[in-house]
Design brief:
Shape: globular
Number of helices: 15
Largest sheet: 3 strands, antiparallel
Strand order of the largest sheet: 1-3-2
Distance between the termini: 38 Å
Mean pLDDT: 79
Order of helices and strands: EHHEEHHHHHHHHHHHHH
Low-confidence stretches: none
Oligomer: single chain
Structural class: mainly alpha
Helix content: over 70%
Length: 286
C-alpha cells in the first residue's frame, strides 16, 4: 500500500489534487487506515494512470468519471478516436512548424491553406450540381450571378479563419479526399431537407425528455438515430467527431445555446450536448 504522499511523488500529481479526486468520487483510496490516512494499492495506481491519460487528452473530469465508472465501456475505442483526432492535429502542427522553419530561413510565405483554389472551384461545382434552381436563385439575387458568387467564395476562402474552419472539417471527415467526396456525393436538395427535418424532430424529442438520465435506453436510442441521420446528411463514415464538436458548442457557446433554447426550450442545448457526449463515451452504441 502507498500513502497519498507516495502516490503524489510517484505520479507527479499534487496531494491536493488527489484529495479533490477523492472528494468528487473520481479516484478514491483503496482503504483508509485507522489513523485516517488514505492508502492505495497497485490496482488503484493503475486506475490513476488511466485517469491521467484521459486528462492529457483534455477530457473533462466529469466525462472521465463516467468512463471509469462504466463497466461496459470500450476504453480502447475512446482512446482510438482521441488518437485519430490528435494525429490530424499533429499534421496541422507539423505544417505550421514547417512554415516557422521557412520564416527562420528568411522565407515569409505563410501558407495555411487547407484547400487550394483548384480544389475549391471543383468543390463549388460539385455543390452546385446538388442544388435546385430555387436555391441557386437565392445566391444569384444576392451576388448578381453564379460566377460572382463563386468568386466571392474563392476570395473569402483565403481568410486564415476560414481555412482553420476547413481544417476542422477535415478532422471530421478524416482526410481532404473524404471531404471532397462528401461534397461531390452530398444528398440532393430535397433529400438534404428531409434529413434536416428528421434531425430537427430528433432534437425536439430530446428536448421533451430533458431531465431524463442521458444514459437511459430511450435517450441513447434517440442519439443513435441522430448519429445515423448525421452520417447520411454529412456523408461521413464516423459522425462522432462532428457531433462531439456540436455537443461542446451547445454547452459552451452562449449565443448558440440561446438560439437552440429559443427553438427547443430552456436548457435544451445543455441537455442535448450532454446526451451526445454520454452516447459517444460508451460502447453500447455498437
Amino acid at each position: 500500500m502507498k500513502t497519498v504522499k507516495e502516490v503524489s511523488k510517484l505520479t507527479g500529481i499534487s496531494v491536493r489534487t488527489l484529495h479533490y479526486y477523492d472528494e468528487i468520487g473520481l479516484f478514491k483510496p483503496t482503504e483508509i487506515s485507522e489513523a485516517g490516512y488514505r492508502l492505495y494499492d497497485d490496482k488503484a495506481i493503475e486506475k490513476l494512470g488511466q485517469i491521467l491519460v484521459f486528462r492529457e487528452l483534455d477530457l473533462p473530469l466529469a466525462d472521465i468519471k463516467l468512463i471509469m465508472e462504466n463497466p461496459d465501456l470500450d476504453r480502447n475505442s475512446v482512446l482510438a478516436k482521441q488518437r485519430k483526432m490528435l494525429c490530424l492535429k499533429q499534421q496541422r502542427i507539423e505544417r505550421i512548424i514547417a512554415i516557422l522553419d521557412n520564416m527562420l530561413r528568411g522565407d515569409y510565405n505563410m501558407d495555411f491553406t487547407v484547400f487550394d483554389e483548384t480544389e475549391l472551384r471543383t468543390m463549388f461545382s460539385d455543390m452546385l450540381q446538388n442544388m435546385n434552381e430555387s436555391q441557386k436563385q437565392i445566391f444569384i439575387d444576392h451576388y448578381g450571378s453564379i460566377e460572382a458568387w463563386e468568386e466571392h467564395m474563392i476570395e473569402g476562402a483565403s481568410d486564415e479563419q476560414i481555412q482553420r474552419n476547413y481544417s476542422k472539417v477535415v478532422e471530421w471527415y478524416g482526410d481532404k479526399d473524404s471531404v471532397k467526396e462528401a461534397v461531390k456525393s452530398s444528398p440532393k436538395s430535397e433529400v438534404f431537407t428531409a434529413f434536416q427535418n428528421r434531425m430537427d424532430s430528433i432534437q425536439k424529442k430530446l428536448a421533451d425528455k430533458k431531465g431524463t438520465d442521458v444514459n437511459s435506453f430511450e435517450i441513447r436510442q434517440l442519439i443513435g438515430e441522430y448519429d445515423f441521420v448525421a452520417k447520411q446528411l454529412y456523408q461521413v463514415k464516423d459522425a462522432g467527431p462532428l457531433l462531439m464538436d456540436i455537443a461542446k458548442e451547445y454547452q459552451k457557446n452562449v449565443e448558440l445555446a440561446k438560439g437552440v433554447d429559443s427553438v427547443y426550450g430552456q436548457g435544451a442545448a445543455q441537455y442535448i450536448g450532454e446526451a451526445i457526449e454520454a452516447f459517444y463515451h460508451s460502447s453500447d452504441k455498437k
